Amino acid sequence: MSRLAAGVVLVTAHDPEDGPNGEDVGMTATAFVSVSLDPPMVLVSLREDSRMDDVLERCPRWAVSVLSESQRHIAGRFAMRGRISDRLLFEDVAYYRGEASGAPVLGGALAVVECETDQRVTAGDHTLVIGRVLTARTPSADGAPLVYFRGRYRHLS
């Protein structure tokens, strides 16, 4: 599967149960696809028992920011495994709150999709989360997509 080029996204949610003001949580993903146009639905694959899997089980609304090649450092930052808190990861990242999800949405993203979980399907060691699209927009028309291929981030030439 490393030979299949994939776009890179940041999946985010706001976990209100984590601390007095809650905590923002983010995860880099390459397994993100459109599932249906009517109604509009998308799917993201999460490692079972990962922090994001746990959060999306409790929090039905979440967001996806499609990363541009200039956001490669953000992809690497949120791809780290085994972290205890995401609080510091968002510290110097430009973001705003999605109106429909309340989740962090990256400034400069090529596209933004806010979702509400419709189904969760166990698939081996992953959970497939199917979300009904609440809003979709393309805030930044400039830039090329960040691509992941053969174990590395790439850019289109």
Could you describe the 3D structure shown?
The protein has 157 residues and is mainly β. The protein is 10% helix and 46% strand. The strands form three sheets. A seven-stranded antiparallel β-sheet has the order 3-2-6-9-10-5-4. A three-stranded antiparallel β-sheet has the order 1-11-12, with no helix packed on it. Strands 7-8 form a two-stranded antiparallel sheet. A hairpin with a 7-residue loop joins β2 (9-15) and β3. It is globular and about 45 Å long.
List the helices and strands and how they pair.
Blueprint: E1 6-7, E2 9-15, E3 23-29, E4 32-37, E5 40-47, H1 51-58, E6 61-66, H2 72-78, E7 95-97, E8 104-106, E9 111-123, E10 126-137, E11 147-149, E12 152-154
Antiparallel strand pairs: 1-11, 2-3, 2-6, 4-5, 5-10, 6-9, 7-8, 9-10, 11-12
Characteristic key phrases:
157 residues, mainly beta, 7-stranded antiparallel sheet, 3-stranded antiparallel sheet, 12 strands, globular
Shape: globular
> What's the β-strand tally?
12
Whole-number radius of gyration? 15 Å
Q: Indicate the low-confidence ranges by residue numbers.
A: none
Give a nutshell description of this structure.
By secondary structure, the protein is mainly beta.
